[in-house]
Amino acid sequence: MTDKILYFNLRARAEPTRIVYALAGKPLVDERTILEKWETLKADQPLGQLPVFTCSEGTLVMSNTIARYAAKKFGMMGDNLWEEALNDMIVEACQESFEKLSSKVLRWKVMNIDPEPENPNVVIEEAYQELLKTLDFIKKVAEKRAKAFLICNEISLADIVVFVALQHAAVVYPEVMSENEWIEEFVNKMTSDERLKKYIEERAETPL
Ligand SMILES: N[C@@H](CCC(=O)N[C@@H](CS)C(=O)NCC(=O)O)C(=O)O
Fold first, then answer.
1. For 60, how many CA atoms within 13 A lie in the half-sphere containing its CB?
2. Which residues form the GST C-terminal domain (predicted)?
């Protein structure tokens, strides 16, 4: 069977896995459900949440577990235990950052799920400063490594999750893409990858 990811019609939690498959040149069934169908589908999902990944070995839930599994399968978690741990660290840092950005800003400003807070501009600015702290942490880790990409000389999962995080953040903070030379260079390097370029050109346009 062909590996499959079931998610909503969003980049969000499924995007790193989709990009791993695109870069590996491997087929992935990218099934996207709509909210109207979700109410009936939810009861059949292992944890009542998406994404859900299925392959010949079985079913996985938890977006980062799925992304790591895919990255390991296609050699994108580094070449040794240390590089794998560094990849993991950046995946977790981005996850935490995404959860904060999502709960503080994206849910009301982009998704219209939550009501706007009383002091929207303060919330938006504080969330941006928090995001920049995480990016600065990742920059320091990468500069210490001095590799072509964040952790390795090839794109690994860390690069993918940081790139996805930047694209999420750019929905609210377009300036993040040129916040500093390091981010600019990183984004240029990623978008110069022909496989990623093609994937981005062909993927569905979604708010997040
Ligand atoms: N920790 C889980 C969180 C999954 C999650 O919160 N999924 C949301 C969409 S981003 C969901 O399924 N929401 C619909 C629902 O809970 O009914 C992961 O990373 O996969």
1. 18
2. 80-208
How much is the pLDDT for 126?
Answer: 97
Nearest CA to ligand 1 atom 10: 13
Give the residues surrounding ligand 1 with Cβ less than 6 Å away: 12-13, 42, 48-51, 62-63
CATH 3.40.30.10 fits 4-75, yes or no: yes
Helical residues (DSSP H) of 74-119, grouped into ranges: 81-101, 107-109
Element (H, E) at 68: helix 63-73
CA of 93 to the centre of ligand 1 (A): 18
Q: Residue 14 carries which side chain, given as an amino acid letter?
A: A
Cis status of the peptide bond prior to 117, with omega within 30 of 0: no
Take atom 18 of ligand 1 and give the residue whose Cα is closest: 62
Domain 81-193 -> CATH class = mainly alpha
**pTM, 2 dp:** 0.97
Query: What does the domain layout of the chain look like in residue ranges?
Result: 4-75, 81-193
Mean of pLDDT values over 107-130: 96
